[in-house]
Amino acid sequence: MLISRRQFLYATGLLTLAPSISVTQLKDTYYEVLLRHTRWAETQYDATAKRYRRTDFGFAVVLGNAVLLTRGGYDAALAGVEKDVLREHTLATVRHFAASNVLAGGTEWGKTLFWDTTFQSYFVLAARLLWPDLDAPTRANVEAIARGQAEYTTSLGTGNDPRSGSWTPNGLTGGHRGDTKLEEMGVYAQALAPGLAWHGDGPGWREAFTRWSRNEAGLAAADLANPSTVDGVPISANTATNLHDTFIVENHGSFGPHYQEELWRTSGRNAVHFLLAGRPLPEVLTSQPNGELLWRTILATMSDAGEPLMPMVDDREHLYGRDIIPLAFRSTVLRDPMAARAEAALASRLLAYQAHPPVHRLAKFSGEAKYEPEARAELAISYLLHELRPPANPVSEKEFFTRAAITIDHGVDPGLLTHQSVAAWAGTVTKPGFTKFAWQPAHDDWLFKISGATPMLLPRAAVVERNIVVCKEVRDGFDATASLLRFADGFAGTATLPTGTIVCALPRPGRVDVHNLAMAGMPGLTGSRTYTGSAGRVTVQAREGFRVDELTFPAMTARHVRMIGVTPHPTYGYSLFDFEVDSAQGKPATASSFAPGFEPAKATDGDPATRWAVARAERGRADSWIAVDLGSATTVRRVRLRWETAAAGAYRIETSLDATTWTTVAEYPRPDLSTPGWLDVDGRAGFVARSAEPITVQGDTITVPAGLVEGYVRADLRAIAAQPAPECPPGVRASTADGFLSLFNLSGTDITGTVRLRGDRLYRGTQVTTAGGTDYALTLPAATARVEAPWFTANGIPPGITAIVHDARRVTFRGGPARFTLTHRNGFALPVVLGRAERTVTMPTAEAFPFDDLARGCVTFPNSVLPPGMSDPAAAVDGDRRTAWTPGRDGRMVVDLGAVHAIGDVSLKWTDGVPPPHTTTYSLDGRTYGAAATARYVAVSTRWRPGHASLRSVSVRR
User: Fold this and answer.
1) Average pLDDT of 609-636?
2) SS3 for 937?
3) Residue 14 has pLDDT above 60, yes or no
4) CB neighbour class for 105 (10 Å; exposed up to 12, middle 13-18, buried from 19)
5) Shortest CA distance to 564 belongs to which of 664, 661, 640?
6) Out of 61, 718, 827, 954, which could bridge 41 as a Cys pair, Cβ 3.0 to 4.6 Å?
7) Over 80: is that where the pLDDT of 10 sits?
8) 652, 316, 619, 255: which is closest to 460 by C-alpha?
9) Residue 490 burial (10 A CB sphere; 0-12, 13-18, 19+)
10) Is residue 1 over pLDDT 90?
11) 3-state SS string for 287-332
């Protein structure tokens, strides 16, 4: 059989760049991935029982099989099994599990909402694809499953499934802390979809389906503000609270919002049944309450692979096979061009990802085996969605991240501050147990490890105070964030810039772990990482298998050699397969402790399969040791240690003549590179440290020193490091990275003073020019940080001139006479002649950022879905004079200010014409509105009729 050039490159491992896949190629890509995955699927076949296994729902592979058997050009060479054999295996499995389902009179599986109904949905869909090949009893059983599940789920009302134990949607109340109930409500909806799609409306089925579906993304403040109806029911009738008030779904066991995808994962499973059955989609699948604000937060955490950052329980991530279906649903059913681009980006990695060991699998970094058949099933559904509905035309990658760029503070409870820019993603994480500053230069989710409890830059201590500043383009003229975190023993500050650059003020050294492995076809994963600094360059090879350390030291005489631990593996302590001293093997060994069957002699017996391990009770002990007795005084100069998973993070090698007095001769880790000032990481990103201490690289770990550290995306780090750092008062750290002034007060008291800056940039506030720059007058409250934009440069300005930058449009100068050129950040230049009198200069083309308007750029309701006749109320807070909100008949809008504020003045500006009768009310919680001096939510209610003016802007001031 002839194979394509790409297939040849794939098979030989020579494919080194992930191909770009267009939306028209997605179906073919998914089909090929399913074919290759069949080799894994066949490992689930039990030749004795003559069907796929029940364990971990392995029989769910039948959906992928059904797609391959009924569509496309089956390729037995890729699948590893002849088509007739696959058909035989698949039909036998469908016959068996259709009969053994509880709803069809069996006892083996089914009916239980968590998680049988997920695999039941896949199973029914597979049977429908294979319907012509099924015998009459099997068809009857499949129909009984779909009908019976809908009847059973409806009979529960809003109560719990007694078969599902603790898994519950919590009635129609839901929940958003710790682990959202969005997924649980979605399971109730998906239990009903096959019955509705294939058998029409049973008593109460549709009402139950739409009720659960409407409430999946429930958030009271948004729902109560939305009079729109979906499937004939007002959104304001929703009762669930499954989202935080910033539209994020907090994930259990992580800081990331992965479970936010469940709205569209469930929708994809449900929609395909209706589409394949030829029935209209329920309105709730195409008009999803709060769906677009939920999607906005997904875009705010999107990687270059088209997936949301998804560090989860046990730090598992990169489950690419599971993440296609939400994007496929949004691309095909919702016709979303942003999702279409994200789907194409993720799909372009699938074949390369699949070829990486363990070969053929689709969820290879998962800790749960059930995800493999699930990933196969959902890839098959994604194929069908593209067959049944044409996808949207995707935006370009550049446009994608331009449109996705946003800063969001999700609040103290979720503990996540995010900044998506064109060049990078960054997040300040303060959720207990996950504290970190996470950074993805170029959105590359295979560069730095940010998942779960993985440490990154910030100390892993509990945050006792969190002060946050969020700058928005529409209100402040640029996107940025600044945070100052107080710990029990100090402070840390972080800032993110619109350029993708980060700035960290660290109280102690920070750690960054680097992904380093060989994955053919994945950009950047070539099996090594190259680090360059002023001290030289080093290439670190990817570590395959268990770690092996070879340490050499000056020759010396010793009889006893030992490894004494400093930092154990956090879970398992210490364990060694081999402890070799020079070439000596078989020598007696002793240890501080050992587990039964893992005695110290097993590390010196020369058998690579045996090992020493510390006693279970001693796993947390740092200074555990193992020692080798060479029998007599011997010249030694080298040790080799081959570790098991329980590898030491740090240890010493010591020698002795009498086993009493010990001398340290080597230590681990030894830096691969120690360089002052700056470090480039693989040409992809880098760090500049404003410290006398070096940046070090040890294996796949970078350690940056305490003090001020800047992170850049592809920059001339040598030149940046050569620029002088700002001179600051005690307790203050400052950076002028990319021209922005980042300021941090790392103390518990207010600080006033002067920050000495280099260059001719002028920042908001007061500064006096010097021979080489400016003296910036600083006032910074205790434990706070902020970012100032370089609105102006003053070329040729002499020393001694006072410049007061009022905003991004006006500057007042004193101290002339002087002549110079004032240039705005937007490029407009203006010659300035300053006499002895004060002069205020106004840039005619500039906006007066920042605006003292609490409403500008805020979230507004209704959002999705809008009532008939109403335009998007966001037009009233977007700062664009060309846009306006049309209320529609008796329309009402709500502005979410993001936090409770004292309300001083609310100003409404209407387009030309007669404004409608209107009132303004306020709320603290988004539920009850009235008159108030403080509020988070501001509502504008109208009695609008055709011919009335539209609302151009809502401005709220303190």
Assistant:
1) 95
2) strand
3) no
4) exposed
5) 664
6) 61
7) no
8) 255
9) middle
10) no
11) CCCCHHHHHHHHHCCECCCCCECCCCHHHCCCCHHHCHHHHHHHHH
pLDDT at 483: 98
Instruction: Say if residues 265 and 378 touch (Cβ distance below 8 Å).
Output: yes
CA 98 to CA 51: how far, in whole Å?
12
Q: Quick one: 534 exposed, middle or buried, by C-beta within 10 A (0-12, 13-18, 19+)?
A: middle
d(CA 822, CA 797): 9
- The CA-CA-CA angle for residues 627, 628, 629, to 5°, reads 125
Phi, psi of 337 (to 5 degrees): -70, -25
- Cα separation, 70 vs 139, in Å, equals 17
The pairing of strands 678-681 and 528-533 is antiparallel
74 forms bridges with which residues in the sheet?
A: none
User: Percentage of the chain with pLDDT > 90?
Assistant: 87
Inform me whether the pLDDT recorded for 5 exceeds 90: no
- If you average pLDDT over residues 763-781, what whole number do you get? 98
Tokens of 539: 């290439």
pLDDT tens, residue by residue, 423-462: 999 999 999 988 999 999 999 999 999 887 788 999 889 9
CB 407 within 8 A of CB 422: no
* Across 877-885, average pLDDT: 96
pLDDT at 3 exceeding the cut of 70 = no
How far is the first Cα of the chain from the last one, in angstroms, to the nearest whole number? 74
Contact yes or no for 245/221 (Cβ under 8 A): yes
Q: What angle do CA 441, 444, 446 make, to 5 degrees?
A: 120
**3 state DSSP class of 579:** strand
SS3 content of the chain, % helix, strand, coil (to 5): 25, 30, 45
Q: Which strands make up the sheet holding 510-513, listed edge to edge?
A: 510-513, 701-704, 695-698, 673-675
Q: Residue 258's pLDDT band (boundaries 50, 70, 90)? A: low
Question: Is the pLDDT score of 365 beyond 90?
Answer: no
Determine the pLDDT at residue 311.
61
The residue behind tokens 């058949």 is 373
521: left (phi over 0), alpha (psi -120 to 50) or beta: left
In the numeric block, the tokens 């690419």 are attached to 320
Cβ atoms 321, 263 nearer than 8 A: no
Q: Write down the pLDDT at residue 543.
A: 81
* Contacts (Cβ under 8 Å, ≥6 apart) of 250: 176, 177, 178, 179, 180, 244, 257, 413, 414, 431
Query: CA 655 to CA 787: how far, in whole Å?
Result: 53
Q: Which residue has the tokens 């992904």?
A: 515
Report, as an integer, the average pLDDT of 117-141: 98
State the average pLDDT for the chain: 94
- pLDDT, position 259: 73
d(CA 377, CA 379): 5
CA distance 451 to 436: 10
Tokens of 136: 């009459």
| Peptide linkage before 357 cis (omega within 30 of 0) | no
Kind plus residue range of the DSSP H or E element containing 87? helix 83-100
Residue type, 66: A
Phi-psi region of 693 (alpha: psi -120 to 50; beta: other; left: phi over 0): beta
User: Which one-letter amino acid corresponds to residue 736?
Assistant: T
Q: Which residue has the tokens 């700002």?
A: 726
DSSP element (H, E) containing 345? helix 337-347
* Beta-carbon contacts of residue 38 (< 8 Å; ≥ 6 apart): 61, 64, 65, 68, 78, 79, 80, 81, 86
d(CA 97, CA 94): 5
Q: Which among 396, 311, 297 is positioned nearest to 345, based on CA atoms?
A: 396
Distances (CA, A) of 897 to 297, 303, 425, 503: 17, 28, 24, 27
Q: What is the pLDDT of residues 784-805, one digit of tens each?
A: 999 999 999 999 999 999 999 9
Rounded to whole angstroms, how far apart are CA atoms 530 and 511?
17
